[in-house]
Structure to design on (108 residues):
């Protein structure tokens, strides 16, 4: 029997980037259970559509979420992704605020 989930990998990557802006692709890959290449493709999708912006901090990459962009499904385009992220994280995400570095022990 095939397994399925309510959230896509894109939604999970977006949520983790919002919660842990300094997380690495390798850490995301391990947490989600998909390849690093898949994670990088998802990050590329999110960046090209403006949902995230990347900036360098030394040797690290910091991700910043644009919480005001709409959800992508045609039935939900009137709702911002902030609603989804806040619902999944109980409003604890501070958009654009610096947080501590995410380590493989500190995530989830």
């Amino acid at each position: 029997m095939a397994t399925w989930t309510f959230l896509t990998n894109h939604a999970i990557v977006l949520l983790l980037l919002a919660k842990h802006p300094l997380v690495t692709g390798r850490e995301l890959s391990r947490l989600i259970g998909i390849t690093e290449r898949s994670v990088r493709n998802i990050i590329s999708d999110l960046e090209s559509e403006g949902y995230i912006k990347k900036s360098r901090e030394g040797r690290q990459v910091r991700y910043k979420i644009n919480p005001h962009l709409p959800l992508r499904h045609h039935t939900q385009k009137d709702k911002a992704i902030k609603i989804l992220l806040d619902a999944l994280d109980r409003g604890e995400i501070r958009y654009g605020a610096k947080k501590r570095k995410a380590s493989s022990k500190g995530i989830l």
In short: The CA atoms of residues 16 and 28 lie 8 Å apart. The chain has a mean pLDDT of 88. The domain at 9-89 is CATH 1.10.10.10 (Arc Repressor Mutant, subunit A).
